[in-house]
């Protein structure tokens, strides 16, 4: 099958065949690419010439697709582990393939190569299918475009709200979770380390459970249900039932109990959100309210910018710690390239607010706005985070605005019971007493009704 070309949908370049590298050409073959090919050959020694989707005009030559190649292998599965036959897709381009700064900044062998990972995807092979469908390649290119444009990286346990069937059909598989690929091992290249993150297609109900509880917990449930993924988390686009339909006991016994006892490990999301200080009208163009509506402030010093960036970054870390860093915390070490933004930085972070506004201010009242999807996560914020003494942050996708909800016991918060609304530049914190959290959690359906009709865009 390696020499056959499957149908190509509009907007995607044609598959080409790739083969082993002749010894005499090894010095001309990009070392990063060669290292990943080596891992592929370890898994598929009998498929030295897999079908491959390639970007006709490479990204570094001005093309639209960041992934240079996506190889497609036929995996026979493993009957002993109850693993079905499937197609295995592997990307090339999120890591540094060339080491010459044409795409990624070369930072040496000790750190991460490029963004530090490549994407994989396992799709159930349908009966009679002789060639892999090519739509997963376009899906992977879409995710790669997001990573390159935002410079936000992915981690195992992350969820991706897609809101559309992954293959543009009528499938219920409309969202994704990410996990470590069960077969591929991290690769050390001359340009750094490359991990392999596997895309796992899930239904809306499964995505919501991952948000309310945690991604790793949901991945474990999916591994335990053969038709929903099995041990290697193979996506079946024809799956018509959620794992909760298949096993009704999973929702109350595993998910609800997990939320109740463990809370959620989702401590922040990127969102459309805006906050406004209603305590007083803006006095001049440098007032904090102008920050939220896009004025043109002066630039911060590099030190002040770094302090806010670090505070926002740590305030959104995906962990279960009930602590926020002090606002004057300093970055320790330089373990990643300076050109890469962490997952909370935006393009305008170099010019956030005037120097004299970088101070903590107590506010009397605030006005919050969220888009509807972000607002529906407020019960998660209450039940899964604040009720467990943790924090939850909305980070604006349109700028450096951030809104963090904290409860009593969150160390490092500058919003307190005495001063429940506090701002440090564009970062707002809202302190919610435990009693209010408990009351609102018990009536989350009413809260959603109010949010949908009163507060949300």
From TrEMBL:
Residues 253-432 form the Suppressor of fused C-terminal domain. Pfam families: SUFU, SUFU_C. The keyword tRNA-binding does not apply. Keywords: Cytoplasm, Nucleus. Residues 63-239 form the Suppressor of fused-like domain. Residues 332-344 have a biased composition (Basic and acidic residues). GO terms for cellular component: cytoplasm; nucleus. Residues 278-305, 322-351 are annotated as: Disordered. InterPro entries: SUFU-like_domain, SUFU_C, SUFU_C_sf, SUFU_N, Suppressor_of_fused, Suppressor_of_fused_euk. It is found in: Cytoplasm; Nucleus. Its main location: cytoplasm. Belongs to the SUFU family. This is Suppressor of fused homolog. The gene is SUFU.
């Amino acid at each position: 099958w390696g020499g056959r070309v499957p149908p190509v949908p509009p907007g995607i370049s044609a598959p080409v065949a790739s083969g082993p590298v002749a010894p005499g050409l090894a010095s001309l073959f990009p070392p990063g690419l060669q290292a990943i090919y080596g891992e592929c050959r370890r898994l598929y020694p009998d498929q030295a010439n897999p079908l491959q989707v390639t970007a006709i005009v490479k990204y570094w030559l001005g093309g639209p697709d960041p992934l240079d190649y996506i190889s497609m292998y036929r995996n026979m599965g493993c009957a002993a582990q109850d693993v079905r036959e499937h197609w295995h897709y592997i990307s090339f381009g999120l890591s540094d393939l060339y080491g010459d700064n044409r795409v990624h900044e070369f930072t040496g062998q000790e750190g991460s190569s490029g963004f530090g990972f490549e994407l994989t995807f396992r799709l159930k092979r349908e009966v009679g299918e002789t060639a892999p469908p090519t739509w997963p390649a376009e899906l992977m290119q879409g995710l790669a475009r997001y990573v390159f444009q935002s410079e936000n990286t992915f981690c195992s346990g992350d969820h991706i709200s897609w809101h559309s069937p992954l293959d543009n059909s009528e499938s219920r598989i409309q969202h994704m979770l990410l996990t470590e690929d069960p077969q591929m091992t991290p690769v050390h290249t001359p340009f750094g380390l490359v991990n392999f993150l596997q895309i796992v297609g899930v239904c809306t109900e499964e995505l919501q459970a991952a948000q309310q509880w945690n991604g790793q917990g949901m991945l474990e449930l999916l591994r335990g249900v053969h038709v929903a993924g099995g041990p290697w988390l193979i996506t079946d686009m024809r799956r018509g039932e959620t794992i909760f339909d298949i096993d009704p006991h999973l929702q109350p016994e595993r998910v609800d109990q997990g939320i109740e006892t463990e809370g959620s490990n989702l401590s922040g999301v990127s969102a459309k959100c805006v906050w406004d200080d209603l305590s007083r009208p803006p006095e001049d163009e440098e007032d904090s309210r102008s920050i939220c509506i896009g004025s043109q402030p002066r630039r911060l010093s590099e030190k002040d910018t770094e302090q806010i960036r670090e505070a926002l970054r740590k305030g959104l870390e995906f962990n279960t710690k009930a602590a926020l860093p002090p606002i004057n915390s300093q970055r320790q070490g330089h373990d990643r390239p300076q050109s890469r933004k962490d997952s909370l930085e935006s393009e305008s972070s170099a010019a956030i607010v005037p120097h004299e506004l970088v101070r903590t201010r107590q506010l009397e009242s605030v006005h919050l706005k969220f888009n509807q999807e972000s607002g529906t996560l407020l019960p998660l914020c209450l039940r899964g985070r604040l009720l467990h003494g943790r924090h939850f942050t909305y980070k604006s996708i349109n700028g450096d605005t951030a809104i963090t909800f904290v409860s009593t016991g969150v160390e490092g918060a500058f919003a307190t019971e005495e001063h429940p609304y506090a701002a440090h530049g564009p970062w707002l914190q809202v302190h919610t007493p435990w009693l209010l959290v408990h009351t609102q959690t018990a009536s989350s359906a009413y809260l959603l009704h109010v949010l949908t009709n009163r507060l949300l865009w």
